[in-house]
Amino acid sequence: MPRQITSFSNETVKRLRGLRDKKVRKGEGLFLAEGLRILAEARDSGMLPEIIAYSAAAGVHPLAAEIIAAAEARGADVIETTPDILSKMSGKDNPQAILGAYRQPDMALAAIDRAAAPLWIVAQALRDPGNIGTILRTGDATGAGGLILIDDSADPWSVEAVRASMGAIFTQTVASARWEEFIAWLREGPGQLVGTSLNTSHDYLDPDYDQPCFLLIGNESQGLPPSYEAECDLLVKMPMLGRADSLNAAVAAAVMAFHVRASWRNRS
Amino acid sequence: MPRQITSFSNETVKRLRGLRDKKVRKGEGLFLAEGLRILAEARDSGMLPEIIAYSAAAGVHPLAAEIIAAAEARGADVIETTPDILSKMSGKDNPQAILGAYRQPDMALAAIDRAAAPLWIVAQALRDPGNIGTILRTGDATGAGGLILIDDSADPWSVEAVRASMGAIFTQTVASARWEEFIAWLREGPGQLVGTSLNTSHDYLDPDYDQPCFLLIGNESQGLPPSYEAECDLLVKMPMLGRADSLNAAVAAAVMAFHVRASWRNRS
């Protein structure tokens, strides 16, 4: 049975609240996801939270009740609490009525089966967790297998990234690696590494893209290091018709991912 | 000559700081832009700030000195201040060394010359100022003429929107209108209104897009109201290959804008 908790100093409340901090997330190996829609996405992808906090202030949605029951049956810690306390945990003024703490999956490259999808997104040193979440959401929409985070990156398990992913954090494989490690892994099997760059005359609309295609997106302010570009099988440029010389990283990833998918549409 | 200001209670400091508030921005008719890169973009687009604050703590870049001199010559209020005070104004821990307050341009539809560009982006009830800025940046990259904000929208003059636009706030025309007003204006001249929707079987890759094309993007969580979809000349769907049923609004705008441009590439 759920425990009723109305105290901010309760241990489970403090533990959940702590998960907004990267070090605590890393230590616990857990991350927070909020809202029935995302918790249902997780359940449909085979994942249940280890801790759930919810408010019954506006009633409990039948789907929420199902997830709570399923998680309890698997030994989850479940607390019923107040909107105020949920607000403190999520850092939002208008919190969702339910949130869960999930186990972070293994982020080793070895967890990736490159044959499982024709498209993978690789992002280097992303700084903005919202961009990571948005790229995961785009990956889900374009049938990518997942996202490989290269070098030091914002935390994909942060509340902001999970929120922006709209549930795709549960459907996309997420891996993390240093560049050298990634290149060594990539070259062990098939895969075309495609970088987006200003330092090329190849328009992104022209090439035939291979499968699996690994789309490499550079850091928000610096773009890709020259030595990383040199390693790519193909560099392509998205034409910039205005005064700006770059795109938002999540936008660049999406335009490339949708175009590559579209280029395969009439493939036999 | 710039005045040296080191007091948080100085009137110009308070005035600039106040511009982070929407009501104050509206009352003053000004907005804040930060950073030499964006101020240079503004200058190259013919706009100079009415107020400038900068720090000489790390020296003054020659380009900053040029902009400061040009603005002063036009009667701008210029203050030299501390990084701490700049931080208070911008709300950032590591503030840019220069910021300016600019006059908000007229946002009436009448300010738009639809013949000036083949592509315009129209966004309905956007809630996230970051999305507005990102869409402006995409509009610049795809040669759009500007962004028309429909109904109640986040403020394009907010610090977050200006920052995400990376200077495109100065190169794109920004207008604001109620839906009925927009439709009446649109139908007075040429223009194909293209909505993105799940309620159609038309894949976005198939149609011939007319010029000028008005791309209509729906609110982040609700999408377009059915009555707005009914008004579109064309509804198209971006295929969703995963579990998610929607895209980030700025991503949807970018994928459509880049595709429409690409579809025109071989046009005579």
How would you sum up this structure, described in words?
Two copies of one chain form a homodimer. In chain A, strand 7 (146-150), helix 7 and strand 8 (173-177) form a beta-alpha-beta unit. Chain A has helices at 11-18, 22-28, 36-44, 62-73, 83-90, 129-141, 159-165, 179-186, 226-231, 249-263; strands spanning 3-4, 30-34, 51-54, 77-80, 98-103, 119-124, 146-150, 173-177, 192-196, 213-217, 234-236. Chain A is an alpha/beta fold and 268 residues long. In chain A, the strands form two sheets. Chain A has a six-stranded parallel β-sheet. In chain A, strands 1-4-3-5-2 form a five-stranded mixed β-sheet, with helices on both faces. The mean pLDDT of chain A is 94. The first copy, chain A, contains ten helices and eleven strands. Chain A folds into two domains: 3-103, 2-Layer Sandwich (60s Ribosomal Protein L30, Chain: A); 109-263, 3-Layer(aba) Sandwich (Alpha/beta knot). The interface between A and B is large, with 37 and 37 residues.
**What is the percent of helical residues of chain A?**
25-40%
Beta-strand content of chain A: 15-25%
Name the CATH superfamily assignment of the largest domain in chain A.
SPOUT methyltransferase, trefoil knot domain
Largest interface: A-B, 37 and 37 residues
CATH class of the largest domain in chain A: Alpha Beta
Q: Please state how the strands of the largest beta sheet of chain A are arranged side by side.
A: 8-7-6-10-9-11
CATH architecture of the largest domain in chain A: 3-Layer(aba) Sandwich
Radius of gyration of chain A: 20 Å
| Count of individual helical segments of chain A | 10
